[in-house]
Amino acid sequence: MEYASLSDSLLVKLLKIGDEASFREIYNRYWYILFNTAKRKLYSPEIAEELIQDIFTDLWARKESLEIDHLKSYLFGALKFQVFNQIRSRLVQEAYEKYSLTNYSAHDRHTENLLAYEDLFNAIENAIKQLPEKTRSIFRLNRLENHSVKEISVLLHIPERTIEYHLTQALRLLRNYLKEFVSLSVAFLVSF
After folding, report:
1. What one-character DSSP code corresponds to residue 65?
2. Are 124 and 170 spatial neighbours (Cβ–Cβ below 8 Å)?
3. How far apart are CA 159 and CA 140, in angstroms?
4. pLDDT tens across 124-142, in order?
């Protein structure tokens, strides 16, 4: 039997009874035109080819239960549905990627800020530990516990002028220590 000369309706009837040659003829007759249409809509030959394969796979799998009045309309309707689903899927994926980039970037920045704060806090603590004991205790009372110079003078029985000297020394030493920390941090960030 010459399948190329058969009408679409006869090919569908033969397909329903499982005739593989009729399926091949339908495939050969419509594959290229469906592929070109899908490629124009999706701008991707790979995705277009995959969609057409899905349409024909589904046609063969459901051959006995399909009610097809007009084969060409049926195939183009299936293609329209597949293209629509593909575009919708792509839009959902793009929206998710945009959402992920926005939210994860904000989360990453927050995490980086917390880590930077923790590093700076540790650097300050280490710098304070480097101070001489008396200077360290005066600095802690003044800067960390918010006592005034006068209160510290009364508390430690030391003249206010001495308290000011220790605070000046503490700030100078901390500034030098933290300058090195900041230089190392900047060098580390620039290396990435």
Report:
1. T
2. no
3. 17
4. 888 888 889 999 889 888 8
Q: Report which residue type is found at 75.
A: L
Task: Write the burial class of residue 39 (CB in 10 Å: 0-12 exposed, 13-18 middle, 19+ buried).
Answer: middle
Q: Which residues contact 119 (CB under 8 A, 6 or more apart)?
A: 185
DSSP collapsed to 3 states, 31-76: HHHHHHHHHHHHCCHHHHHHHHHHHHHHHHHCCCCCCCCCHHHHHH
What DSSP designation does 6 have?
S
Gap between the Cα atoms of 60 and 41, Å rounded: 25
Query: What's at 111, amino acid-wise?
Result: T
Cα of 98 vs its chain's centroid, Å: 7
Nearest residue to 82 via CA among 52, 40, 57, 45: 52
DSSP state of 43: S
Structure tokens at 172: 């100078």
pLDDT, one tens digit per residue, over 22-54 is 999 999 999 999 999 999 998 889 999 999 999
Distances (CA, A) of 120 to 38, 127, 180, 185, 191: 57, 10, 12, 10, 19
Integer Cα distance of 192 and 176 in angstroms: 25
- Count CB atoms within 10 A of the CB of residue 65: 7
